[in-house]
């Protein structure tokens, strides 16, 4: 089993923790991570884009000009795509961009992303975060002691931590059940509480 140091929120070593090899020490499958990442980003798209067709734009009841004698090509309606302000041919329509992704693919991509952060030594395990009040300044002090930027923090429900960190740039706090590939890849550092590591191992472990 791989081993990682457990630190306090003041960055003092308080012990060590064994990590499951089938979660934090697998071979990184880059194509799988890429496919799941694309699917996740596709699912975030609203798909509400739309342009009006000839039948939907306003006006067009009267012929723009007479059939012959003007030198122009004949036109029957100002709503034609050939006319300024007319409808659009083959424009975007509302659609769903979601891509079906099997659960085991998502789990495999999560294992690869977590293993990459561990192998690159960009993962920290904190015993627990203790904030007595909801104070942004208190969290900023903790961040300065950790001395890292672009942080994804994964922890169990901790209202003081979540609300204290939400206005700090380049920091995101997720609950364990919300851990996803996009946020792991997007942030340079992954910080997890000891309880969160155990929960993730239970969720992603193959046994």
Notable features of this structure?
about 210 residues, alpha/beta, Ribosomal Protein L4, Chain: A, 2 domains, 7 helices, 6 strands
Alpha carbon gap, first and last residue: 15 Å
- The name CATH uses for the topology of the largest domain is Ribosomal Protein L4, Chain: A
Shape, principal axes of CA atoms: elongated
**CATH classification, class level of the largest domain:** Alpha Beta
Return Rg in Å.
27 Å
- Which CATH architecture of the largest domain would you pick? 3-Layer(aba) Sandwich
Task: Summarize the topology.
Blueprint: E1 2-7, E2 13-19, H1 21-24, H2 30-43, H3 103-119, E3 123-126, H4 136-146, E4 151-155, H5 159-165, E5 171-175, H6 181-186, E6 189-193, H7 194-204
Parallel strand pairs: 1-3, 3-6, 4-5, 4-6
Antiparallel strand pairs: 1-2
Walkthrough of the structure:
With 207 residues, the chain is of the alpha/beta class. The protein folds into 2 domains: 2-46 and 100-204, Ribosomal protein L4/L1 (Ribosomal Protein L4, Chain: A), CATH 3.40.1370.10; 51-91, no CATH class. Helices cover 34% and strands 15% of the residues. The chain has helices at 21-24, 30-43, 103-119, 136-146, 159-165, 181-186, 194-204, and strands at 2-7, 13-19, 123-126, 151-155, 171-175, 189-193. Helix 2 (30-43) crosses helix 3 (103-119) and helix 4 (136-146) packs across helix 5.
């Amino acid at each position: 089993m791989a081993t990682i140091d457990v630190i306090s929120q003041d960055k003092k070593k308080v012990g060590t923790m064994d990590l499951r090899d089938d979660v934090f020490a697998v071979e990184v499958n880059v194509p799988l991570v890429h496919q799941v990442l694309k699917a996740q980003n596709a699912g975030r798209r609203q798909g509400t884009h739309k342009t009006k067709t000839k039948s939907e734009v306003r006006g067009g009841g009267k012929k723009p000009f007479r059939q012959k004698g003007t030198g122009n090509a004949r036109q029957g309606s100002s709503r034609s795509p050939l006319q300024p302000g007319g409808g659009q041919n083959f424009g975007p329509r509302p659609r769903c961009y979601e891509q079906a992704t099997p659960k085991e693919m998502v789990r495999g991509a999560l294992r690869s992303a977590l293993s990459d952060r561990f192998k690159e030594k960009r993962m920290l395990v904190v015993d627990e975060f203790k904030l007595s009040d909801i104070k942004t300044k208190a969290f900023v002090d903790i961040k300065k002691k950790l001395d890292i930027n672009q942080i994804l923090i994964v922890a169990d429900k901790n209202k003081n931590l979540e609300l204290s960190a939400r206005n700090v740039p380049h920091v995101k706090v997720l609950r364990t059940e919300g851990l996803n590939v996009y946020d792991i890849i997007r942030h340079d550092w992954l910080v997890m509480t000891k309880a969160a590591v155990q929960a993730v191992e239970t969720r992603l472990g193959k046994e």
